Every structure is written in C-alpha cells, then in structure tokens.
Amino acid sequence: MKDHNFTTAFTVNQTPAAAFAAITNVRGWWSEEIGGRTDKLGSEFNYRFRDIHRCKMKITELVPGKKVVWRVLDNYFNFTKDTTEWTGTDIIFNVSRKGDKTEVRFTHQGLVPEYECYDACSDGWGTYINDSLKDLITTGKGQPNVGEPMTDHERELVL
C-alpha cells in the first residue's frame, strides 16, 4: 500500500543532536508567533498566522537526537470547507545518521491528497522544513513566520 501522507527529507553535515535542537526550537524555523513550550514531552503549544490558520499541538513523543511527534489537538483554516482538517493528525520528525551525515525526515501523518488543504499545506511544510528548518540547522538562522506571508500560497490568501 502506498503511503499518501506528506513526507519530505533532507540531509545535513550537523549532528543528530544539533538537528533535534533546531526542530524543538519551533520559533526559530516555523513562526515567532508560537505560544507555549516546544521542547518538553507532554507540553502543548499554539501556532497562529493572522486569521488564516491556527492550531494547537501536543508533544506526544520526544526522543533526544532521534524523534519528535506532535499531535494536532485543534486546527482552524479560513480557506477550507472543513476548517478542522488537521485535527487528530500527527506531525513527525525522525532524525538519523546516514553515513557521516544526519537525515531529517518529516511526515505529516494524516495530511493526504484527499484534503482540501493538501496542496497549500504541503507547499507550506516544504518551505518551512526544506528551507527554514534546514537553514536553522546548518547556519543557526531559519526564516520563521514573523507576521508576513512566507509561501506563495500564503501570499495568495492574504492578497
């Protein structure tokens, strides 16, 4: 059976510990508008981007240097018929050594092509993971959302 969940991955020269530290620094790569702890098992945090998207996450798995899992407890989109599409899905970061490099594999389990937001959301995740998170790991500086739209789709929604 083919896996239809959104997945993307990249490799870096940094250690798994460095990648893990960057992943849990959600304000450094996703959005500065995060409320709550993002680095402690059982913690809940909120994400908000204008009136377009907001969600509440719970950290359900946290294995230093290896894995982070967030459960989406609540979600709101202003651009889909089902405004709660992400609710009940899991966002998974797997970190592993691949030779002398570190691989970061991101999966949004439950974000499937049947979802109305799939194209916009997979585009957004692709940008945040493959550009911003990767840059945070490799250079120490990501490009988190600071109130301005980041992806092409976010720009379209705001204009």
Q: Write out the strand line-up for the largest beta sheet, numbering strands in chain order.
A: 1-7-6-5-4-3-2
Category by helix and strand content: alpha+beta
Kindly report how far apart the N and C termini lie: 40 Å
CATH class: Alpha Beta
CATH architecture classification name:
2-Layer Sandwich
Q: Looking at CATH, which topology would you report?
A: Alpha-D-Glucose-1,6-Bisphosphate, Chain A, domain 4
Largest sheet: number of strands, sense, barrel closure: 7 strands, antiparallel
Low-confidence stretches: none
Give helix and strand order, one letter per element, not per position: EHHEEEEEEHH
Question: Radius of gyration in whole Å, from Cα?
Answer: 15 Å
Number of strands: 7
Total number of domains? 1
- As a percent range, the share of strand residues is 25-35%
CATH homologous superfamily identity? START domain
Tally of separate helices: 4
Please, what is the average pLDDT?
91
Helix content: 25-40%
List keywords for this structure.
alpha+beta, 159 residues, globular, Alpha-D-Glucose-1,6-Bisphosphate, Chain A, domain 4, 7-stranded antiparallel sheet, 7 strands
Describe this structure in words.
The chain has 159 residues and is α+β, with helices and mostly antiparallel strands. The protein has a single domain (6-158), classed as 2-Layer Sandwich (Alpha-D-Glucose-1,6-Bisphosphate, Chain A, domain 4), CATH 3.30.530.20. It contains four helices and seven strands, in the order E-H-H-E-E-E-E-E-E-H-H. The protein has helices spanning 16-24, 26-29, 118-139, 152-158; strands spanning 6-12, 34-35, 44-49, 53-63, 67-77, 90-98, 101-109. The chain has a seven-stranded antiparallel beta sheet. Strand 4 and strand 5 (67-77) form a beta hairpin. The longest helix has 22 residues, at 118-139.
